[in-house]
Design goal:
single chain, 442 residues, alpha+beta, Alpha-Beta Plaits, 15 helices, transmembrane helix
């Protein structure tokens, strides 16, 4: 029963119609519909108090006219003529109020004029602001005219003088009705505004999070404030590339859905590693994952951070390899290449912003990856000089690299023996943390 009543009320208020409207128009529609329903209830309540016999016919005619006016406004609203419904409602209500005020003595109907001033300001949308102001000023002028006529000029109602003492029902019906309607309108407006603001805040939070998923926070803030972000030179930074061995061959044995799911599983884990080591994910290109340290904020630990992240990523891939091998499933092996040097980082272009880096450092890091061995972390001599006091590195010699000649390269085996926990090649101990914090503070 309650469900049927609720459904009928929603239909009467046109909830299904307003659902597809823009937020401001939806709020305007609902406020107008609620006002129509509230006024209809007040008209029905006005039949309850006793009325002098000589005024019964007039009051009943006014009530019927009021219901007819509300019905016309309701039909206009449901047919999509929202502004017309609001204007008709305002004018029809004023005419009815003026009829009661200047015809019947002892009425407090003028109190509804204060509601009439507020109503258009609440229900009419911003694009019709001139209409909104005019509709608010008219009842304001009518209230002044009513007070002037009765209180200053000593005017009388058409059907007699104002009584010195009013009956309770003559006063309370209009007072309670007008102020209740005023309170209801204010409540509905504030509730609608709060709902709209909550939606705006939720959407803003989503858009902010999406922006931060694409760009570093510092760069995102600069773009929001200035509209542009100047590329910046970083004198010392580290770039890392990863690439799966045999990706194409294994991908041919998987469905597109399985392939994307497997890549997502790996890259999502890599993303979590970036957060733990204060690194910046730059992009993925097919099965290649690229990240950097020392950007967008420069620091002294970028090379160490990248190698620590590479050790964690390689450990994850080795674990995945072991699990799949035990199940006789094909598995990917990973090459990682790291190089340190200067680079330019920033955002270029005007659409589809992406934070990227450019310089020979990037090319060399890519060559370190392609010159590496699956399952090993390959670093350049420049990176080795920055991390040799922290990691056990194996010298490979000068390795030929495409279009780069020979590059001094090293394999990273793990942390130095005195910087790691016993039996753990990649888990740092307190001595590591002490040296690391000392380097950060330099």
């Amino acid at each position: 029963m309650k469900t049927k009543i609720r459904s009928a009320l929603h239909w009467l208020l046109g909830r299904h119609i307003s659902a597809g409207l823009p937020e401001e128009e939806r709020r305007s529609f609902q406020l107008t519909a609620n006002t129509l329903l509230s006024l209809a209830i007040i008209v029905f309540l006005s039949w309850l108090p006793p009325v002098p016999e000589n005024l019964v016919g007039l009051l009943r005619a006014v009530n019927i006219a009021g219901l007819l006016e509300l019905t016309i406004s309701w039909v206009l609203l449901r047919r999509g003529y929202m502004l017309a419904a609001q204007i008709f409602l305002c004018f029809a209500t004023w005419i009815q109020l003026l009829t009661i005020i200047f015809t019947l003595p002892g009425q407090q109907a003028y109190m509804y004029l204060s509601v009439g001033m507020l109503l258009p300001l609440l229900v009419v949308v911003r694009k019709h602001k001139v209409v909104r102001i005019v509709l608010a000023l008219i009842p304001f002028c009518l209230l002044i005219a009513q007070q002037t006529y009765f209180k200053i000029l000593g005017g009388k109602a058409l059907y007699g003088e104002e009584p010195k003492v009013f009956r309770a029902d003559e006063v309370l019906v209009d007072v309670v009705g007008s102020q209740s309607l005023l309170l209801l309108l204010a409540y509905l407006f504030i509730r609608s505004r709060d709902e709209a603001e909550a939606k705006i805040q939720a959407e803003h939070k989503k858009s902010e999070q999406l922006l931060l998923n694409i760009l570093p926070e510092e760069i995102a803030q600069e773009l929001k404030e200035k509209g542009v972000s100047e590329p910046r030179l970083h004198r010392s930074a580290t770039v890392c590339f990863t690439d799966f061995k045999g990706f194409t061959q294994i991908a041919e044995t998987m469905s597109p859905t399985e392939l994307v799911a497997e890549l997502d599983r790996c890259f999502s884990y890599f993303d979590s590693v970036m957060e733990r080591h204060n690194l910046e994910k730059l992009k993925t290109i097919g099965d290649s994952y690229m990240f950097a340290g020392g950007v967008p904020e420069s620091n002294k630990t970028h090379a160490i951070d990248c190698v620590m992240a590479a050790l964690e990523i390689q450990a994850f891939m080795n674990q995945m390899k072991e699990i799949k091998a035990n199940q006789d499933l094909p598995y990917w092996e990973l090459r990682l290449g790291i190089h340190s040097g200067n680079l330019v980082a920033g955002v270029i272009g005007e659409k589809k912003f992406a934070y990227d880096v450019w310089s020979d450092t990037v090319n060399t890091a890519s060559r370190c990856e392609s010159s590496g061995i699956p399952g090993r972390i390959n670093i350049s001599g420049a990176t080795y000089e920055l991390v040799k006091d922290f990691f056990d590195c194996e010298y490979r010699g000068a390795v030929p690299a495409k279009n780069k000649g020979k590059i001094e390269m090293y394999f990273v085996n793990g942390l130095l023996a005195d910087l790691r926990r016993a039996g753990e090649e990649r888990i740092p101990n307190e001595e590591f943390r002490r040296r690391y914090e000392g380097l950060k503070g330099m």
